[in-house]
Amino acid sequence: MTLPEQDPVPPYERSVFGRYRSRAFGAFNAQNMWNPHWDFMVRTGLTPYRIRRHFGCDSPLTDGGLTDAYWCFDRFGSSRTVFPDGRLVYIGGEHEEGYDPDFCIYNDVTIVTPAAGRDFATLDAGKVEIRGYPESCFPPVGFHSATHVGSYIYVIGGHGYGEMSGGYGTPVFRIHTATWIAERVVTSGDMPGWITSHHASVDAANNSILIHGGRRWVAAEGRMEDQRGCYALSLATGHWHCVRSPGRYVRFFVRPPYEHCDDLLAAASSALSHMEGVKYSPGAWTGTRSEPSSPVLEIRDVFITVTDQVDRLQLDCLGDFTDQQLRELLIDICNRLDATTGLCWILEDDTDRYGLRS
């Protein structure tokens, strides 16, 4: 049995696949776990189903509720950090959901170095390095943030295999960018809680990382809620404090005058990042290989997360603002999109409470 013509063919025998097909944890901190099969999966992004079909394997067996998931790089909720020297660093992420036999939340770190003569790394070229960790050292994680500061990448929040039920504080780890050693960072103070899908940025002036947006686990009620505050983590002391109270939260949608428009998120990011007074931050990438995370804009003290919803963009607005201030800001956003794309974009909300143009 062979792969469809458009799929790449593994450059190794079945015995290599059999040896390295399953997910594996590192035996020690930052263990080099590179092998030909994982390298191939990183470069191609093949799913476990497709590689299994090539080698004529059945679905992975389940024994006692534990699934022997096949290792892959087709993940969501991973982070991608771009280094000044062109390297890409991917951390964790998960494949599919619990119903899938190959569901897996990863805790590995993949470093891609630019190929000779290139300034930036790509997954199909250059050197691939994969580091593994014991679960006790660096647990599986997805939908976290990964922020590069100095000699470390700070990994904040995210979710793993059910740890949220304990109602812990905000998990923080850091990974040294020379050795790739991971260590837990002990923190204190007014934390944002166990957060996921949030946005992180560097406050260089105060040597801290700012966190806002995302979701937070409410342990007492066993549910998730929107995280609407802004918190700062001091990298010098490990102390958290609340920078801004939750404020108001409003969701809008903006769409072009017809159903389909290629790459809405790229068009909006390009247009809005050049608005007067805007602070644009792409933040930590926690998307899939082809769908990066939502950028965050700070315009007139309003945080706006922009999310691609296929035929329209979702604008989540957070801050202290009046109805009139919000209305003026959103109309400015629409006008900017009009001028940049040559389309007449339409702002809408569910109630038309703000009298937006339609």
Please write out the topology.
Blueprint: H1 14-20, E1 31-32, H2 36-44, H3 48-54, E2 62-63, E3 66-67, E4 79-82, E5 88-95, E6 104-113, E7 127-132, E8 145-149, E9 152-156, E10 172-176, E11 182-184, E12 188-189, E13 195-196, E14 199-203, E15 208-212, E16 215-218, E17 223-226, E18 230-234, E19 239-244, E20 248-255, H4 264-272, E21 279-281, E22 296-299, E23 302-308, E24 313-319, H5 323-341, E25 346-348
Parallel strand pairs: 12-19
Antiparallel strand pairs: 1-7, 2-3, 4-5, 5-6, 6-7, 8-9, 9-10, 10-11, 13-16, 14-15, 15-18, 16-17, 18-19, 20-24, 20-25, 21-22, 22-23, 23-24
Helix pairs in contact: 4-5
Could you describe the 3D structure shown?
With 358 residues, the chain is of the alpha+beta class. The chain folds into two domains: 14-244, Neuraminidase, CATH 2.120.10; 248-348, 2-Layer Sandwich (TATA-Binding Protein), CATH 3.30.310.180. It has five helices and 25 strands. The chain has helices at residues 14-20, 36-44, 48-54, 264-272, 323-341, and strands at residues 31-32, 62-63, 66-67, 79-82, 88-95, 104-113, 127-132, 145-149, 152-156, 172-176, 182-184, 188-189, 195-196, 199-203, 208-212, 215-218, 223-226, 230-234, 239-244, 248-255, 279-281, 296-299, 302-308, 313-319, 346-348. It has a six-stranded antiparallel sheet with strand order 21-22-23-24-20-25, with helices on one face. A five-stranded antiparallel sheet has the order 1-7-6-5-4, with helices on one face. A hairpin with a 5-residue loop joins strand 4 (79-82) and strand 5. The chain is globular. Residues 61-66 have low confidence and may be disordered.
